[in-house]
Design brief:
alpha/beta; 7-stranded parallel sheet; two-stranded parallel sheet; 9 helices; 37% helix; 17% strand
């Protein structure tokens, strides 16, 4: 049995990761300050003797004994990370320093949940791991984009200087049950608006693209990366290379919900990427991983979840 720390463990991805790690027979410490996470996401785990919840902010040091660390803690939607951009930057930078310090002291292997946002508004499409990005360092999204880039820098510096066992994954758009209905992400936005028969809001002309990975596929890739040979550090893209425009996504959601919603258009927010699609050849080769759940099936499961809570 491994003793595993999941920071951000009460969040959307973190709670699914806790589920999976417990099913595999691990002892799981779930650490979250509940800024965007929710106890509702982990309520079903509280009575599990192998699960422990710790309310804590990783921008402050924490002293635990663990074998492995999954560092997922950080607001991940523009609505939330722009609410307090300085704290977002602290979570990314101080949080990485604190978790890497913990890994150094305990000898734990540590995985960083990075993001496709490190590529910014890309001039290379689709995006391979070798692409260095086109990021605005002073924009309204920079607290997140640059914070995640700095976290990657810290991980590799600790790896080179202190021989810490690191894994870095770049997560592309992920969706599924337990998404926050108010987080401003496109899938949850469209589904909630459709279920309420409200206008579905598309920002820009609707031609900008995203690639959507269902949460079960994402968690499988995350665990495969953590369990991969020590010499493979990443960064590695984990996402679904299926590419859809915002208009295509809106039309799919309307059809699957049977909604009477109309599509309306609003101006595109500052620094919003025009296109996003991962190259996943490295994940296929090194992790024997690729997504298996198509968008329509994943949307059906996600819509069923939101019908119960909206």
């Amino acid at each position: 049995m491994n003793r595993i720390l999941v920071t951000g463990g009460a969040g959307f991805l973190g709670s699914h990761l806790c589920d999976r790690l417990l099913k595999e027979g691990n002892d799981v410490l779930c650490l979250d300050n509940l800024f965007t996470g929710s106890k509702d996401n982990i309520r079903h785990l509280i009575d599990n003797p192998c699960f422990e919840f710790i309310r804590h902010d990783i921008s402050q040091p924490v002293y635990l004994e663990v074998d492995r660390i999954y560092n997922l803690a950080c607001p991940a939607s523009p609505v939330h990370y722009q609410h307090d951009p300085i704290q977002t930057a602290k979570t990314n930078v101080y949080g990485a320093i604190n978790m890497l310090g913990l890994a150094k002291r305990t000898g734990a292997r540590i995985l960083q949940a990075s993001t496709s946002e490190v590529y910014g508004d890309p001039q290379v499409h689709p995006q391979p791991e070798s692409y260095r990005g086109c990021v605005n360092p002073i924009g309204i999204r920079s607290c997140y984009d640059e914070g995640k880039r700095m976290a990657e820098t810290l991980f590799f510096d600790y790896h080179r200087e202190h021989q810490i066992e690191i894994k870095v994954m770049r997560i592309f758009n992920t969706y599924g049950p337990r998404m926050n209905p108010d987080d401003g992400r496109v899938v949850s936005n469209f589904i909630v608006q459709a279920l309420k028969n409200e206008d579905i809001t598309i920002y820009g002309d609707g031609k900008q693209t995203r690639s959507f990975c269902y949460v079960d596929d994402l968690i499988d890739g995350m665990i495969r990366l953590m369990n991969s040979p020590e010499e493979f550090t990443g960064p590695v893209n984990i996402g679904n290379p299926g590419e859809f425009t915002m208009l295509e996504l809106a039309e799919k959601v309307i059809a699957l919900t049977g909604s009477d919603s109309r599509i309306v258009y609003e101006p595109l927010p500052s620094d919003d990427p025009k296109q996003r699609k991962p190259v996943i050849e490295l994940a296929k080769k090194q992790l024997d991983w690729e997504p298996r759940i198509p968008l329509e099936e994943g949307l059906k499961r996600t819509i069923a979840y939101f019908r119960e809570i909206v």
